[in-house]
């Protein structure tokens, strides 16, 4: 059974709409499917931001290296 859909109306720049339509055409998909994928990706990105492990490792190492400075700045 297909998921229930709700119609809505919105606006976007002609350039953005053109790019979305081009993606749909190139992928052989309906515009609404591409739009739905874009909305899902946006929501997932906001709900669970993913930081690459190597970036987090560098951050933790930097905090550890600068712990004393951070303590002094916090005072």
| Unreliable stretches | none
Q: How many structural units, i.e. domains?
A: 1
Let me know the average pLDDT.
91
The string of secondary-structure elements, in order, is HHHH
Tell me the quaternary state: single chain
Distance between the termini: 60 Å
**Helical region count?**
4
Count of beta strands: 0
Alpha-beta classification: mainly alpha
Helix content: 55-70%
**In one word, what is the shape?**
elongated
Computed over alpha carbons, the radius of gyration is 21 Å
Beta-strand percentage? under 5%
Largest sheet properties: none
List the helices and strands and how they pair.
Layout: H1 14-27, H2 31-47, H3 53-65, H4 67-74
Can you summarize this structure?
This protein has helices at residues 14-27, 31-47, 53-65, 67-74. Helix 1 packs across helix 2. It is an all-alpha fold and 75 residues long.
């Amino acid at each position: 059974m297909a998921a229930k859909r709700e119609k809505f109306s919105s606006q976007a720049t002609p350039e953005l709409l053109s790019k979305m339509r081009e993606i749909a055409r190139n992928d052989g998909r309906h515009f609404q499917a591409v739009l739905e994928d874009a909305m899902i990706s946006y929501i997932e990105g906001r709900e669970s931001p993913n930081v690459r492990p190597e970036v987090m490792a560098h951050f933790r190492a930097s905090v550890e290296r600068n712990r004393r400075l951070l303590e002094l700045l916090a005072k």
